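Priority: low. Protein: Fish-egg lectin-like. Input follows.
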Amino acid sequence: MRASLLVLAVFVGSSLALVCQEIDGRLTQIDVSNGQVFGVNSGNSIYTRYGNGWVQLPGALKHVTVGPAGVWGVNTENLIYKLVGGRWIQTQGLLKQIDAGGDQFVAGVNMQDNIFCLNRDAAVTTRGSETSIPWNLLPGALKYYSCGPYSCWGVNSADQIFVMKGVTPDACMGSKAWQLVPGALSMIEVSTDGSVYGVNSAKDVYRRDGVSVSNPAGTGWTYLSMCGKSKHVSYDLGVLWVISQNEKILTCS
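Result:
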């Protein structure tokens, strides 16, 4: 498909300018980490970016994630899968959304908005043959949950935003105390470097500013108007990947 420049550079805040470009393909959800790109389309087909094109993987998922804990996904029956040796292996549990962006741990939410995470040892070693793996149940209820190296962020059914501090590879539950963050988002993603981006109910994209190890909650939100109306975002290595409202794929850098 053609690659077209969608917008001119637009300044955000005082110094950052992003230019968004459409690339080939159509996806409904995307996740990027450490140079890897995975996504799914409206037919639940799974793709990964290879060079300047897309390669379809076997299987069918409604949500896929890539990160330090590997490549995971969930299907329309909320069954959980991990990519092991080029094959999707079913693991124990049920989740509607999953995230592998934490420091070798996995997190997600189920159909009742219960929140779970899996510490590093279990996340890295599971091969699907286990009858039970030690999912940890966190307090509260969220419809979307995403983790980075030192914090996890989530949004609830009312689009309220929460951050969990103190997460580590062996203590993925963190402090177990949610901090409410001003604003409203319908989905949120934390990158491998800790950057936080999200989309609100009006399909507008926002970036959280001031996020750091010493201040995981950050300081404020910046509206990224150049992204247009969008449904999903993911950030890695200086590039914001955006799925537009009509499922076009944009890279913004």
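Residues 1-15 have pLDDT under 50 and may be disordered. Residues 120-125 form the longest helix (6 residues).
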